[in-house]
Sequence to fold (487 residues):
Amino acid sequence: MSADLSPLLSVKGISKYYGAHIGCADVSFDLYPGEVMGIVGESGSGKSTLLNCMAGHLAPDAGEVVFDTRADGPKDTVTMSEPERRMLGRTDWAFVHQHARDGLRMGVSAGGNVGERLMAVGERHYGDIRGKATDWLGRVEIDADRIDDRPTTFSGGMQQRLQIARNLVTGPRLVFMDEPTGGLDVSVQARLLDLLRGLVRDMGLSAIIVTHDLAVVRLLADRLMVMKSGRVVESGLTDQVLDDPQHAYSQLLVSSVLQV
Amino acid sequence: MIDLKDVSKTFTLHNQGSAVIEVVNDVSLSVAPGECVALTGASGAGKSTLMRMIYGNYLTQAGSIRIGDVDIVQAEPRAVIALRREVLGYVSQFLRVVPRVPTLEVVAEPLRAVGVSAGAAEARAAALLEKLNIPQRLWSLSPTTFSGGEQQRVNIARGFAHAYPAMLLDEPTASLDATNREVVLSLIEEAKASGVAIIGIFHDEAARARVCDREIDVSAFTPGVAA
Fold:
């Protein structure tokens, strides 16, 4: 990770309006390979809107999301053709939803959930697919003997880990995460954090994590953006923003956390 | 190696009547390779603040703070991240770790981050933990459940795992018994001998006298306080 690398993702002036209401306005930043960016803010601050605009789930009203593609170098994914963007979504990008059931196929076995993504990128050999699925279930600490069970029989934490396995099996370079630890028991959160951090380091992933949990960003994110009313009010190194927040809203956010 | 010029810092508390607090004013100091400088001054004088400004988790309003060839006041976040990974180490008073990660991995992590293989990093981590008298049966456990003194020693082992050319030490000998205090002081002496530039806060006067070449009284830079 040398200083002269070009950005993996370059977000320029992204805006999204819901009628007269601002979803997010004029957000710009660069994300470099191996970096983890956290986005925090209260509910309704526009962080999920921004994430969905970047990941291609929502069409922004203005702005560019330039991704450094393997084949053709930097390309604006907003103006890219739908099939191209979908291919990106299956290969270099991954999206971890807050509710695992939004990111999983609940009627398909755990192994099938992981294998499906492999098949979408052209893998056809049943033995290879099952082998990789088993390997990934192991990495996210799901027992191999659960491979043929459906996610409906899994706990919330297991479903979330399965969703992560399904997303990472194709070796993406960029992972979008929407509240990945939200709604989980704290002991399960810790396990997931440990897992995510290891995967980020070992696979050299870049990630964008939307959360309202400041402890999560402190442990996972290199950089942090604070959003309020659709705008980025402060950004910088994670520990700088948390230890010495400059904007009134960031100060309020940091000082409102209950000490354990 | 560490070079501060005309550095000033204020805190603006927007939610408390926009109170502006001047913490330090016009600090200039420099630390050469192999030198250890102690920051002194009463509690509240701004020692820790100054240390955090050098590490970059506090923003600096004016002046420049150069570590090697990077000015931390102006640097982009990712330049600071790279600097902290390779050049600038910081042993704080608190151990902050992802729960569940074994102690051996916590200590080996800074080495893994600079590309050292798992085996070599863990061997170095094991040697440091052994030196700091952390019993081997604890290495596979997370340090979150350890005693204060044990956590402090894990923190020190982690801080000294990678050979940073510049280091910041915040009370490295606090809450240690005589044996372990001796180990930490010898680690600092070894680092100095190998050319590391060190800035430290030591309330332990004997320790300060032994490892520090100079003292800088931070109250000289505190606005409204006579030096």
In short: Residues 118 and 134 of chain B are 20 Å apart (CA to CA). Chain B is about 35% helix and 25% strand.
